[in-house]
Every structure is written in C-alpha cells, then in structure tokens.
Design goal:
By secondary structure, this protein is α/β, with parallel strands linked by helices. It folds into two domains: 1-134, Rossmann fold (3-Layer(aba) Sandwich); 141-221, Formyl transferase, N-terminal domain (Rossmann fold). It contains six helices and seven strands, in the order E-H-E-H-E-H-E-H-E-H-E-E-H. It has helices spanning 46-56, 75-83, 98-111, 128-134, 154-161, 195-220; strands at residues 35-41, 62-69, 87-89, 116-119, 138-142, 165-172, 182-189. Helix 2 links the parallel strand 2 and strand 3 (87-89). It binds 5-O-phosphono-beta-D-ribofuranosylamine (GRF). 5-O-phosphono-beta-D-ribofuranosylamine is lined by residues 41, 43-48, 120-121, 141-143, 206.
Length: 221
C-alpha cells in the first residue's frame, strides 16, 4: 500500500550533516505536481543515476530530492554531485546506535516531503523508526527473481548455481531481507559462462524495470 498523500507534521533538525553540493536543478524543480523521491545507495549508483536521468528527461513525473549514502567516497556521491542532487552521507560508526542515524534520516525525509524512498544498492537493513514511519513508501530493487537468491550476492549465487532464467525484482521493503511483497519482476534467459556479461545484462534490466515500476507507482497514486 502506498501512502503518498499521508500528511507529515514532524519537525526535523538534522540539516547540518548535508554535504555542501546541494543545488537542485532538475528541469522539474518548482513543479508542485512532481513526486519527491529519495534514493538510498552504498556503492556504484548506476540505478541511482538511471532514476535521476529518467526524472530529468520527464520519463518519471518526479524529482530525486535526496541521496542517502552510508559510505563516504562511494561513486554514487560523484554521480549525485554531477546531477546536483542533494546528498546526505553518514558513517554509521559515528552514531551510538542504528536508531540514532535512522532518526536523523527520517528527519531529512520529512523535511523534504519525500513521497517515495527507493533503495538502490543500499547495503543495510531498515528498522525502527525509519521503517515504521515510511513502511509502505519504501521499495527496493534486487538482482534475482525473488524469492530465489536473496542476499548481497544474488548475481554470483545464481550464476554459480547455474540457473538458465535470470531476472530482477522490485519489492516493498519490510523488516525481512529481500522479503517484502513483490511489485514487479522481469526475467530473461542467459546460458553463457561470462559473469561480467551477465552482470551487465542484469543491470540494464534493473534500470528499465526500476524506472517503469516507479513511474507506474506514481501514476497509480
Ligand atoms: C543492484 O544490482 C541492485 O539490484 C542491488 O545492488 C546493486 C546496486 O547496483 N540491490 P548500482 O549501485 O545501482 O550500480
């Protein structure tokens, strides 16, 4: 269930940790009709950039208002800087508990009026306040046909298993690992023996499916 229209009254005070490349200049800035997305990522960020570009090109009626990244120096931050997307980078070790950084993230999402959170290679489970406040508005992309091959090494695991039909899943996020209700899936056959080639194909399918799914969720809501 999507709760795009849920009103939020939370006061956030956590603006100081935003890194200073924060000028937003997507072509849609200022349009009240645009949904506001936050993307969470930990590494490369190809899905992040695919979403940003789809927004910039008007293929999704939304703007990426915030990148949340738990790893300083991750390449996704460079991608965000190139597109002028505001970025919150944090180090979990700087907080006494997971609840501490999740509460700060909730404040950032609230103050920006985020409608939908898209996890894209974010290597942490969500819990506590973040999940309870935003559950129903958080989706994830996973590089397998769930429920097969959950976890952080899905491509390698499915390749080593020798499957012949690969795929990608977009699902709602809950407290389980890759276990939330499935929204969409896309499958393709691959019978080769080159994992790098397979990875490239999976990422291409991911980008298309994630964009199509986000777009459909926005249209439906
Ligand atoms: C993708 O394969 C995604 O499905 C998984 O993590 C990877 C992130 O890739 N959750 P990228 O950082 O978007 O390139």
């Amino acid at each position: 269930m999507l709760l795009f229209t849920k009103q939020r009254n939370r006061i956030a005070n956590a603006v100081c940790s935003i890194t200073p490349h924060s000028t937003l200049h997507t072509p849609h800035s200022g349009s009240s009709k645009l949904k506001r997305l936050a993307v969470f990522a930990s590494g490369n960020g190809s899905n992040f950039e695919a979403i940003v570009e789809a927004c910039e090109q008007g293929r999704i009626n939304a703007e990426v208002a915030l990148l949340v990244c738990d790893r300083a120096g991750a390449y996704v931050c460079e991608r965000a800087a190139r597109h002028g997307v505001e970025t919150f980078v944090f180090n979990p070790k700087d907080y006494a508990s997971k609840a501490g950084y999740e509460a700060e993230i909730v404040g950032l999402l609230d103050v920006r009026g985020i409608d939908l959170v898209c996890l894209a290679g974010y290597m942490r489970m969500l819990s506590g306040e973040l999940l309870s406040v935003y559950e129903g508005r958080i989706i994830n992309i996973h590089p397998s046909l769930l429920p097969a091959f959950k976890g952080a090494h899905a491509i390698r695991d499915s390749f080593e298993y020798g499957v012949k039909v690969y795929g990608v899943t977009v699902h709602w996020v809950d407290s389980t690992m890759d276990g939330g209700h499935i929204i969409s899936q896309r499958a393709f056959g691959y019978d080769g023996d080159d994992m790098a080639e397979l990875e490239t194909r999976i990422h291409t399918v991911e980008h298309d499916l994630y964009i199509d799914t986000i777009n459909q969720l926005i249209i439906d809501n």
